[in-house]
DNA sequence: GTCTATAACGGGATAGAC
DNA sequence: GTCTATCCCGTTATAGAC
């Protein structure tokens, strides 16, 4: 891997592990096995490198989610596929953790990719719910936007509870909980 | 307010705003209008002061939740009271944000109060759900532990989504979403 | 109890040689 | 492109005077 690429990947890992405030350029360089000079040659500074790392993480997260959504199956099954996909629960969400970082939130350009990814995710889930309703699978009384937000929030909150407990259990409990609630809005008569 | 007390309250505010890694002793002193010497007289160091601040925040959060839970009303109404209580949504959760802090998670003593508070919250919600089931209010098929985790996670995740969007909307959407899902498990025949 | 001085260290970046 | 030297500042204390 070239130096530039190693720098971005190292930044992605450290942002995940320690956040923006907790990550120093020096730490990124060490992990990437690159010198000071290399980093400041390829990037204007810490912020610039972080921006690229965050953008890439946001793209990947959306791509992985879309893989789950694009499977064929009922709307419920597609949501199930997303909620039960493999995750490194105890490491948390690469994007969610950035929302707790004061420097990220203070910088519109750094916050933007995070905002867009969560916005896209909720919109996509809402679309799937609406499709399910159109096909008579889901109770049409359900507010798609609200339920989509609840699902997205459960995942993010699940990570928080898992970290607090240093255990994956509360995460999986939360996912099963929201899935069971959602399952009860599936129309029984549906095929 | 005495100096010691001002230091703890300042630490609470700064931990909320900037987290542990992002908060320096100097910043706490400035906010508390206390000198270096005062801080190191009353506390062994940054960690020691943070521990007291975190413990206090955990206690307060549990106390506020219990106020909501202790109101009379159905199980659903008590949960509703908790979920719709006044919150400073865009500032996030004092405890949830700490789970994203590498230094907090690396220190058992700093993590403990956070862990206990979330554990207590989930246990308490599960109890209320079980009570609701015993009284024929909630569908008895529901797994109380899982739904309690889902509710707790929705709140925490709602904060994350709100911060990302710099808007309270996704938080309130998520809360309404989980409430509507929960409402559909209330037995209609119940008085 | 509170103050100031001091210190060792790391963060974040610039400059210029190679 | 990458390296080393250098810089200024903030962090997290400790020491001792008042």
Written description of the protein model:
The structure is a homodimer. Chain A has about 190 residues and is mainly α. Chain A is about 70% helix and about 0% strand. At the A-B interface, helix 6, helix 7, helix 8 and helix 9 of A face helix 6, helix 7, helix 8 and helix 9 of B. The structure holds a DNA duplex (18 and 18 nucleotides).
Give a brief description:
The first copy, chain A, is an all-alpha fold.
Largest interface (CB within 8 Å) is between: A-B, 57 and 57 residues
Poorly predicted regions of chain A are: none
Label the structural class of chain A. mainly alpha
The largest β sheet of chain A comes out as: none
Number of helices of chain A: 9
Radius of gyration of chain A: 19 Å
The fraction of residues in strands of chain A falls at under 5%
Assembly annotation = homodimer
Give structural attributes.
homodimer, 191 residues, mainly alpha, 9 helices, elongated, DNA-binding
What are the SSEs and their pairings?
The structure is a homodimer of 191-residue chains.
Chain A: H1 3-18, H2 25-32, H3 36-42, H4 46-69, H5 75-83, H6 102-106, H7 108-134, H8 144-165, H9 169-183
Helix pairs in contact in A: 1-2, 1-4, 4-5, 4-7, 5-7, 7-8, 8-9
The structure holds a DNA duplex (18 and 18 nucleotides).
